[in-house]
Queue: 3 jobs
Job 1
Amino acid sequence: MKTIEDLKRLREQVQSDTRLRYTTGTKIIIGMGTCGIAAGAREVMSAVLDEIAKRHLQDVTVTQTGCIGMCEKEVLLDVVRPGEDRITYGKVTPELVPQIIAEHVVNGRILEELVVGKFSE
Amino acid sequence: MRELSLQVLDLVRNSIEAGATQVALAITEDFTADRLTIEIRDNGRGMNSEECRRALDPFVTSNQTRKAGVGLGLPLVDMYTRQCGGCLSLESSPGKGTTVKAVYQHSHLDRPPLGSMTETVKAIIIGNPKLDFRYSHTVGQRTFCVTTYELTGILGDIPLTHPDVLIWITDYLSGHFNYLYGGGPGENH
């Protein structure tokens, strides 16, 4: 079983890794109101976290937001790359997550057919 | 939402939207009293007695940002507890925060399974890195407790979404849930 001691060792290991960059990363925001959770937002978030771990993406942060009023399009997932528009994807399933991460988060190609909104920050 | 862990996630979201910076979640599975209790205590803006009453009305929302928002969390949980021989209680005062307590009869045939608390706790901790979150879970004689204060204290400026940290959190939580249910396969596995 993993322990708090393992986390302390992990910190030492990560800190000694000089290739890290934290602050300029991409943000992924998942809608987790009642509507989002009922539509499977927690499973989508798990898929996102799995994909980050699998691809070893060190500059992506994942946060939650509540209901934004497009409940019929849940699960909603936003991708914000630094200096680019905020893109909202609708009807996201865990199966679509690897594709969104590979195309948009990593390579910067927006998956137009899944987009339900675009906001300039 | 036929999984208690999803109801928990929804209730914690309520606390965050009420401006809470501290949330304490406690789940107690008491087999002697045949009770499963979920208690969520926050330091959000709180509600007066009139607002508490309205919070359980499925046709009312306190959402100010849009006209039609889904705020079914509390009325749904209220319904589930009553279907399972339990009840929901709300204790709140303006400026002091809110405590929600949902009690279910543990052995009730209609009680939804707890579901994956590993996924719920992970979603809360990682999705709200600034939240001071405390989680404790008691099953019979065994207890597990984790706080974000402890984790972020160790991690310093390393983010919770660092890939190696994600793997550690998943293993840590699932390992301890296994332990809670006697090390063997519990109802969640």
Job 2
Amino acid sequence: MSRIAAFIFRRKGRNGWHWTDIVTWIWLVGGLFIMFGPAVWLVGSSFKSPAALAEFPPTILPYVTQKATVDGYDKPLDLYDVTLPDGNKAVLAEVRRIGVISQMVDPEKPGEIIKVNIAQRKPVRTMAFATTNYTEPFIHFDFVRYLWNSVFVTVTATLITLVVNSMAAFALSKYEFRGRSFAMLLILATLMVPLSVIMVPLYSIVSALGLFNNLWGVILPTVATPTGVFILRQYMLTIPDELIDAARMDKASEWQIYWRIVLPLTAPALAVLAIFSVVWRWNDFLWPLIVLSRKELYTLQVGLSIYSGELNVQWHFILAMTVVTMIPVVLVFIFLQRFITTGIAGTGLK
Amino acid sequence: MKAETPRPTGSGFGEAIMIPVRLAMGLIDAPLRWVQRKLGLGGMAAFFLLPNMLIFGIFVLLPFFINFAYSMTGGTALFLDDRTFVGTDQYVRLFDCSNYLDPNSCTEDTFWTAVGNTAWFVVLQVTLMILFSLVTALILNRELMARSFWRAVFFFPVLLSPVVVGLIWKWILQRQGLLNFALYGFGFQPYTWLNDRNWAFAAAVGVSIWAHMGFYTLILLAGLQAIPKDLYEAAEMDGTRPARAFWRITLPLLMPNLLVVIVLVLIRAVQIFDEVYVLTGGGPGTSTLYLTQYIYETGFATQLRNPGLAAAASILMGVVLIVLTLIQLGLGRSSEKNGSRK
């Protein structure tokens, strides 16, 4: 036990805490709150009813005020714990409020109105998760359509990226031909051309090809990513050429060599690229925003931003949909965290 | 041959997926053998390169060159053949300014507002980003319990989409939000932060740091871990104080990584758009209007769109980015040289 304690409180100073130990733990715990806190707050808020969302100060957990149907009143009334002037406590239902005076009735004796100062009452609340925030967008909005569009774009773009990039990487790593270094240079040079620089002409090219308002217009410009070619080529260079020569002697076609020998051996690099492609394409925003102007083609990201920009922001739906949008990326993160973080540090991916 | 082919050991699920794929591949293989007979080995290289180069050429290279043509034309028409040649008019219009520090004195006042905002944003964001990610990397490099957990904590926001990042913070910074709640505990009155020009700008800087810091922390951490431990042990034996060891050992040896990070942060800061667009929409007023949003709105969003002007502005931005990239490539080369000298 003491060894565990010693491990946990391992610190620099031999006698007591060195100031760097204190800074370290303040930084780490502060970081935990600042980095995870906002996302946790988002998830917690997404289960609140619209009334609870409008409340200030907000509560950490979702609560709703209990209501009761009282004879003689059409709508259910809010219930309050009230401290009466004589010091007794009672549960009363509020009929209306005028200034600081609330007119209340006892649900048991609905005839008699009791006037209570609002400082003397507290709402009766129970914890309740507003799961309708999640279910209603599925029924009433185009949410399912957005989700489908996002999944389609992400999956298709990733598959094409893997095939097309690995073919190019194979050519650039396993063949000697004139212009090989030129092709490589061209690809490397455009690593740095961001979309924001070419978006005006790209838009007209996509329109000219008839891909405006078409999911393929979102997919195609992103699939020939130079980063992918670069990573895969670096990896394929480590595959011994003797393996390929042996296959050729066995009369394997070049396509078979690529498909049966090189691709399986490149699996680790393909996996890294696949993960990144999924995250990039799922998160894409500016380009889909430009290409897609018909509502039924929106991806989740575009749909969400359009909804949240409207005048009557329905935060309870927006928050729930944001959480759903986060889920795939969080899953990728949880399962592949170690893999991703070391992978990035090693390759310097963008 | 078949038995000798090395295969990664896959799961049964993976194998099941592969069966139809293999069947399809068998069907593809026969015509490709015919192609190979026609083209020869050298031709197959071109065959493998073609799909990527075709897509790349159409959607990256071609637009890159057309951009110059666009920037020399005027009007609101979309296609180049419908547009009139105006020479350098668009550039002249962008630079028509009596005082560059005062956007109101310019013909394209929003452009210069965006330039000014972007410049400020870059200065503030890059400084703070480097500072925070360096401190975080130094701390994560210490002997910590559950280091990979802490690394994950700081990396997590990197994977979130800009829209999600923007919405999370819009939700926290609004009037009934978490920030006001936290400050309320200290006796402050609720405030609509994003309706205040200065606070909205600060929020844009802060949120973009929050979203991307983990990435740069990781690169710096990798650099720190590459520094040999015995250097520090030797320094300790000589009685060197930790602060001196930091300036004399850590910082010089981390410099190549640090320079790359600085340039990467710069390149990304110049292009800032998504998170801020969702967070503030460029407002209030024009206080968080940045260059990419200016290009987007001039080119696509407004009624009186002017693709030529947007193209000219994007070329100016491209020039800045290319200069930064060349610096980065130069830095990469010089750090390689340093590495080989060791």
Job 3
Amino acid sequence: MDWLFFGEISLAGLAMGGLYALIALGFVIIYKATRVINFAIGEIMMFAAYLFLAFAGGLEMSPWVALPLAVLGGSILGGVIEKVMIRPMLGESPISVVMVTIGIASILVGLVELLWGADPQLLPRFLPREPVFIGEMYLAPKIAYGFLIGAALLILYLLYFRFSRGGVALRATASDQAAAYSMGINVRRVFNLAWVFGSLAASLAGVLVAATGGLSPQFGAIGLSVLVVVIVGGLDSILGALIAGVFIGWLETVAGAYLGGEYRMPATFAVLAVILVIRPYGLFGTHEIERV
Amino acid sequence: MRIGDAKQTYEADEAIWTSQTQKLWFALFLLVLLVFPFMANAYLLYLGCLVGIAVISTTGLNILTGFTGLISLGQAGFMGVGGYTVAWFSLNTGLPFPITLLLAGLLAAAVGILVGLPSLRVKGLYLAIATLAASVFLHFIFAEWESVTGGMGGLSLEPAHLFGATFQSDFSMYFIIVPLAVLMVFAARNVFRTRIGRAFIAIRDRDISAEILGIDLLRYKLMSFALSSFYAGVAGGLFAYFYRVVTPESFPLSMSIFYLAAVIVGGMGNLLGGILGAAFMTLIPEILKLLTAALTPFYPNAPVFMSPMLEIIFGALIVGFLIFEPHGLAEIWHRIRRFFSLWPFRN
């Protein structure tokens, strides 16, 4: 076995996993606060990446201006979606809410195709190009720097949720909505904030992932891998999202490199199936006890 | 004028027909179905067959998702099992189509039971993801098990044949698909008049209460999965005979979402809704095509916008129905019916 090759593949996989973790975090924030499974997360990523393309490519802004603008655009999109389409669904069955997000995903794909066409596009280069070596192992620079930026945002998020007012409000709402409400927390605002923050994480990850692999209206399919991540980690666990994200990213890349690209999805879904049998609520998810 | 209908016995409540008028309209509807292929042109016939297949599959998914409350994102996978079964048996054994279709349904049902196994442990969205995983695996098998499925190239099959007659044209396929669709919807209607169907509904309404009432959850959930996949398998088999080719791409994930959307737009847990939803969702792209064709003389690049517009309309329909008309087309239909049966009163 070629350990150098394995190391390089693993590193690339772990870096990709870091980005998965970031997206999964966006997913978990929304779920934790609002109990909505957001199937449109991949499409929100895609939308932000196209915004970046428009700002940096079309309007020729500096990528470092375009990046925050695109991420901002993606977060606003998340907020608007919550206000217009998710809020009216409050109290409806989870099936209905999930289907609404699937509908939103379809609308976003159509919009993007309408605005930017259906052909794949390349994002303008903005990350440094010097190859990165860790020991003797080569790591593609786009992946390495993408991982660093993603990790920085992850740490910011964790600090925010731990210490800020907004973060505490969000955690309070997640643990007991009615109690949070009666303690004067504006639950509606928290819901909206959760969507904004969740979409923010996804948007940043979207631009970074698109920068490494290109962009097309099918880009949102990456949301499926993220679904696997959050189910394995546990829908409502931030820690679970991080660990499962890194693991699934690694597994997907290694399976792709050693068995062939067509094995990427079955490999991750096999892990998912095993987890569902052993721990149906994910590795770190909360086991809800139901009463009549 | 026919104001409401008072039901005084359980039999009356369980009856399929609540009034003479209903029977009359249904007879008329059957007559239209019978006359349709002789009047319609090739295009309408093609659409008629597509709607028929969609009705079968939607009814199946409705049993599982609408009546039993188990969300499934695997419908296209089950249809694929049906399609490949039909293709394999007709290529390798030359069995006539009624038998291959039955086998398609049974094999799909077996796979459905397997996929449904986690349904006692996980539910709601975890189950939806589990069915999604199943359809990923099925897709993988379709693409990779080349000796049986023909790999990415798929399988081409001979037209359906029975007693020396071959069913090659859309016209002849219509006479397989549509009667089968009517029959299977009726079968589903009858399931919900029995103990089994009632158990499904109890599980949907609150599974823990249902269990306390003595319903064996695993058994009935698996039964629902089996029944639903049986419908999907038959629909997939018809699909294979209709296009006479099956490839892994014939049954994409988006197809599962399409059927889920059809169930929702039509009305979850309502068989009439399933029919309306299937017809509506199948016809929307065609209507859009006609519209684009009509617009092209004025806006030459109208066709470019068609496929994205279709995505947007598809999504907007799902979102719009769920927000504004959660009971779907069936509810609209009931409102219209109520208007006529209550007239001259308003409500």
